[in-house]
Amino acid sequence: MLLAIDIGNTTIGMATIDQGHVVSVIKVETTAKACTIKAVIKKIFKGTRISRAVICSVVPKVSRTLEDVIKKMVPVDIIGRDIVVPIKNLYKNPKQVGQDRLVGAFGAMKIYGCPLIVVDLGTAITFDVISSSGEYLGGAIVPGIRLSAESLFLKTALLPKIEIQAPKYIIGKTTEESMLSGLFYGYGSLCKGMIDMLSSQVSLQESGADEANSVKVVMTGGHTRLMKKFISPKIRIIDENLVFKGIYFLSRL
Question: What are the chain's domains?
Fold first, then answer.
């Protein structure tokens, strides 16, 4: 059994995977104390036949902490250091692309085929574009929903800190309702527009008149369940475990 670990800026996701099937997922805040993270790891190992761990991380300090704990029990590989994602990266500086973005793109390619756009609703909302020949073309990044809400609270005098939940109305009647409407309907419109423009760019670059219609769009990330109805019908494929699946495929190389 594989322990796949996705260390993001906000959350650490730890999934046990058996023969390609995600058995369980446990999440903990990235800012949690080291002792808390270690306790979670030990709990996962207790009673579970884990033979290997693979870490995908955008927070090096935390990945070192996890590696030190896990390597005492099973072999550990870190993506980007021990495992290279086998995808042609067309970024001007390929090292600038987060490993999580490459892993998600690779996982989506393996499962859903190309061309495709991966929309990841995490701390940042990322759009990653993969050509029909499997090349990572690049993408776009905007602040995520929670990050935007926290910025409004921290950088304004009168706007409150709000709980992230789907709005009931598009026309808010209170400050909180107006903020939620702006976040969800606003980001929903943003995602729809970005998907249309990116799909058109794929069509232009590959000189295929109908290419935009064949581009698959995959949505993943922590706010997937909350956001899906605000982006529909642009999103037809939802895969909350996409990065974990990508880690699994990489572990099999």
Answer: 2-83 (3.30.420.40), 88-247 (3.30.420.40)
